[in-house]
């Protein structure tokens, strides 16, 4: 035998009622069906009564609405030949309600007793109409006004059930009434037969009472969600229903906001050990959640993540508390006197402070009470004056199996830490059913998402990506991400979600992720103009976990925001060399900030594009090797130029060709003037531990002064053409000696310089082609034959691939 309950949203409209009856009809074991008032009616009844109490005559309009809704529902649901008698019965009830309201209006008085009576009409209307419709639908059904069987005390609006009498009344009634009972939720009556209501959670409680009294095999609570969810789906989109949970887990989860079921309503079921199923009326084929007394064997330590959005934290501390008995008794006694409920408590074993959370609206009174209670100690400076901290949230993970599993707390704190979420207080009940942390309110949703990710989606790691710069490198990167998306998801469970894109003109944000097949159109058509300040602000405000910022520009304005971005606990990947080659202090500061905020700052493509140059150097240094010398060809552009330039080509043509092939900087003067190489060798010296500045790098430039000084890229090319003969001469001279030209950067004995050199066959840099870079590390461990890194050092594909590889490194770290 089963008992079922359908809440207000399940019986909101005639169409939904038809669906409910269909579900009931399909269930041969259903014995009692408890229903709530039609969705919204209870509140409307209360409002109507309150308006009448105030003498506001427009209460009559509200009453008319209530009247209309029920008569229309009856007309729509009941077959023609029985309609008039059912409508007449509804009208009788409505007349009774109308008279009651009139009485309130005349007397201007609304007692709790009267309010209970008024509110009871909601369930009486709905269950009567539903029972009549059920008959039409072919069920042998009857209306049960539960005031006949649920006996309570006279604590109106929140009456306590007398189980001894109630159980007996229910058992007798059901024994005498073989038809399916459509029973009113929420209401009962006292010993004198006066109507009462059961307080919060009303109809859930009713079905639990019936289930327990009848020793039902199951209690089904039909609602508008798929079950008890792993997290609030309005805050965590990936939340999913928990298949099984214990009564205790359900209570913990419900206590903290997941309002699927009101905890006390489970008590009768729990006492008789009756499973409670949570089912979705809008998705009846889904099996929902089962709440019973077996802890699950699926190995999942955490069942759900939940939160209380707004709390205040109070701290009572001082030397006068250490080892003194009775402090907490006085503290919580003072709060209890004013019925202030304490949500969470922590005390360190030093006994120096007690910290606890209350509702923010109760905090001022709590502060006052405590300061009064401990006035003497405060005056003697034994206890500090207590103050409240506001705008905080509690986030908790819940699960019975946590006590059997190690590392759960570690995982919780790690995932919060990595997302820059600071923990103000921690509490774990000794039952180990719940670990709660107090954090800033603004971090609540981020924390829920990060924890949900860590505990439930560990199979798929979503990395939220913000990209500025979608030129050559940026657009190639997007293409690569799109091509590789499926593979990364399948092989590594990494999901790069592009949340924002921008170029120098437009920006586009979409918290649901931007579809990479249409990013160009979307960015182009975006109504939002780009400015870095608002881009960063929006990124900060979104406050998404596992966020990564990608800078694919060559802009110093963009890199000037890195500091702020790292401080917001957002990792950075960039091929832009400006930050790493600016002031040494800034370079070091960014590295320190990344460490401090537990995020990652990667810039491998600053030198040699995707070639493992910086990481190799870091490995050498970190493992204790000593760098004696670095000699390198660090410009893909210059390498390409000198590998391609021969007697058949003009120098200026080859430079244009390099630009076309995507090797040059956005401004090719930077390549030709060696300032790009200077930046790269400077970065390498810094990675070796030398605090060098760009002015310390000596450049023996080789382009004529007129080119060097050209005020624009166009004029630069004009000047370059004028110098074609000069470059041809340089090349021919080298060729005569059997040599080739190479722009070589060198770092040795703390000194860095760059010069164009003619090298012969014996030189390790002689054999280069395309945009090859080569880097030779002579170290204590590689003294004679240096460690060489060689390969294409510029170009869109390799550079984007290097950026992508850094992103994957971060994804693996987060
Ligand atoms: N081409 C290559 O082989 C390599 C390039 N790099 C670096 O990659 C970066 C990008 O180079 P490319 O893609 O060739 O440049 P690009 O000129 O093709 O694209 C730059 C992008 O940045 C955007 N942008 C510029 N200033 C901006 C601002 N203030 N705010 C927002 N967006 C801005 C532009 O609108 C454009 O979308 C540069 O820092 C370059 O040094 C690094 C290694 C190799
Ligand atoms: N313009 C650069 C690109 C890589 O940093 C080069 O030519 O090497
Ligand atoms: Na590199």
CATH fold naming of the largest domain:
Dihydrodipicolinate Reductase, domain 2
How many domain regions? 4
Distance between the termini: 50 Å
Principal-axis shape: elongated
Number of helices: 29
- What is the residue-mean pLDDT, rounded to a whole number? 93
What is the CATH top level name of the largest domain?
Answer: Alpha Beta
Distinct ligands, ions and cofactors found in the model: 1,4-dihydronicotinamide adenine dinucleotide, ligand LTNE7NMQ, sodium ion
Rg, please? 37 Å
CATH architecture of the largest domain: 2-Layer Sandwich
Strand content: 15-25%
- SS class: alpha/beta
Query: Count of DSSP E strands?
Result: 28
Strand sequence of the main sheet, in spatial order? 3-4-2-1-7-9-10-8
- Residue share in helices? 40-55%
- Characterize the largest beta sheet: strand count, sense, and whether it forms a barrel: 8 strands, mixed
- Assigned CATH superfamily of the largest domain: Dihydrodipicolinate Reductase, domain 2
Low-pLDDT sequence parts: none
Pfam families: AA_kinase, ACT_9, Homoserine_dh, NAD_binding_3
Protein name: Aspartate kinase
Family: In the N-terminal section; belongs to the aspartokinase family. In the C-terminal section; belongs to the homoserine dehydrogenase family.
Subunit structure: Homotetramer.
């Amino acid at each position: 035998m089963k008992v079922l309950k359908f809440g207000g949203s399940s019986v909101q409209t005639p169409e939904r009622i038809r669906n409910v009856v269909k579900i009931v009809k399909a269930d041969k074991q259903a014995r009692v069906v408890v229903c709530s008032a039609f969705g919204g009616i209870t509140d409307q009844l209360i409002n109507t009564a309150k308006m009448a109490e105030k003498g506001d005559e427009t209460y009559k309009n509200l009453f008319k609405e209530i009247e209309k809704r029920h008569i229309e529902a009856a007309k729509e649901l009941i077959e023609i030949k029985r309609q008039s008698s059912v409508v007449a019965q509804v009208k009788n009830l409505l007349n009774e309600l109308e008279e009651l309201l009139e009485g309130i209006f005349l007397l201007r008085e609304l007692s709790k007793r009267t309010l209970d009576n008024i509110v009871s009409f909601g369930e009486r209307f709905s269950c009567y109409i539903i029972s009549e419709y059920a008959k039409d639908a072919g069920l042998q059904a009857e209306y049960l006004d539960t005031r006949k069987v649920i006996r309570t005390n006279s604590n109106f609006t929140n009456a306590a059930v007398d189980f001894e009498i109630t159980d007996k009344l229910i058992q007798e009634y059901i024994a005498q009434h073989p038809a399916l009972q459509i029973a009113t939720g929420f209401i009962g009556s006292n010993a004198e037969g006066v109507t009462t209501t059961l307080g919060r959670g009303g109809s859930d409680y009713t079905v639990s009472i019936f289930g327990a009294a009848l020793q039902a095999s199951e209690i089904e609570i039909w609602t508008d969600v798929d079950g008890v969810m792993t997290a609030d789906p309005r805050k965590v989109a990936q939340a999913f229903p928990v298949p099984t949970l214990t009564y205790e887990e359900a209570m913990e989860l419900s206590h903290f906001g997941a309002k699927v079921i009101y905890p006390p309503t489970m008590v009768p079921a729990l006492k008789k050990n009756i499973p409670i199923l949570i089912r979705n009326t809008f998705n009846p084929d889904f099996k929902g959640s089962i709440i019973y007394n077996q802890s699950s064997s699926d190995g999942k330590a955490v069942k759900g993540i939940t939160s209380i959005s707004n709390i205040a934290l109070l701290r009572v501390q001082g030397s006068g508390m250490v080892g003194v008995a009775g402090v907490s008794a006085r503290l919580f006694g003072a709060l209890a006197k004013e019925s202030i409920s304490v949500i969470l408590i922590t005390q360190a074993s030093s006994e120096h402070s007690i910290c606890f959370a209350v509702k923010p609206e109760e905090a001022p009174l709590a502060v006052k009470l405590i300061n009064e209670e401990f006035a003497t100690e405060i005056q003697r400076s034994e206890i500090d004056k207590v103050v409240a901290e506001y705008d905080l949230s509690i986030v908790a993970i819940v699960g019975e199996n946590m006590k059997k599993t190690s590392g759960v707390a570690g995982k919780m704190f790690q995932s919060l830490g990595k997302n820059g979420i600071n923990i103000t207080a921690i509490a774990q009940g000794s039952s180990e059913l719940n670990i709660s942390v107090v954090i800033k309110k603004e971090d609540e949703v981020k924390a829920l998402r990060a924890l949900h990710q860590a505990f439930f989606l560990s199979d798929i790691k979503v990395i939220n990506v913000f990209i500025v710069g979608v030129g050559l490198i940026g657009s190639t990167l997007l293409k690569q991400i799109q091509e590789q998306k499926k593979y990364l998801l399948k092989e590594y469970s990494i999901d790069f979600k592009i949340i924002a894109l921008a170029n120098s003109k437009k920006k586009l944000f979409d918290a649901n992720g931007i579809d990479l097949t249409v990013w160009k159109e979307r960015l182009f058509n975006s109504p939002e103009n780009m400015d870095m300040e608002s881009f960063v602000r929006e990124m900060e405000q979104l406050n998404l976990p596992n966020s990564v910022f990608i800078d694919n520009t060559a802009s110093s304005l963009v890199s000037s925001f890195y500091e702020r971005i790292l401080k917001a606990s957002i990792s950075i990947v960039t091929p832009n060399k400006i930050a790493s080659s600016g002031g040494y202090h800034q370079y070091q500061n960014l590295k320190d900030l990344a460490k401090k905020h537990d995020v990652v700052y990667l810039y491998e493509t600053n030198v040699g594009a995707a070639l493992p140059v910086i990481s190799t150097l870091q490995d050498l240094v970190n493992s204790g090797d000593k760098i004696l010398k670095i000699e390198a060809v660090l410009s893909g552009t210059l390498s390409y130029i000198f590998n391609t330039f021969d007697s058949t080509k003009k120098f200026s043509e080859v430079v244009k060709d390099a630009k076309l092939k995507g090797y040059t900087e956005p401004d090719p003067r930077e390549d030709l003037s060696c300032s790009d190489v200077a930046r790269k060798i400077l970065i390498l010296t810094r990675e070796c531990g030398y605090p060098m500045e760009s002015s310390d790098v000596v450049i023996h430039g080789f382009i004529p002064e007129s080119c060097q000084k050209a005020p624009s890229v166009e004029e630069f090319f004009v000047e370059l053409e004028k110098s074609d003969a000069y470059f041809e001469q340089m090349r021919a001279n080298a060729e005569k000696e059997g040599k080739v030209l190479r722009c070589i950067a060198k770092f040795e004995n703390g000194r860095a310089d760059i010069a164009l050199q003619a090298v012969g066959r014996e030189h390790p840099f002689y054999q280069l082609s395309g945009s090859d870079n080569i880097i030779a590390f002579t170290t204590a461990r590689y003294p004679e034959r240096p460690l060489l890194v060689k390969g294409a050092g510029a170009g869109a594909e390799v550079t984007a691939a290097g950026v992508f590889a850094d992103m994957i490194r971060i994804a693996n770290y987060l």
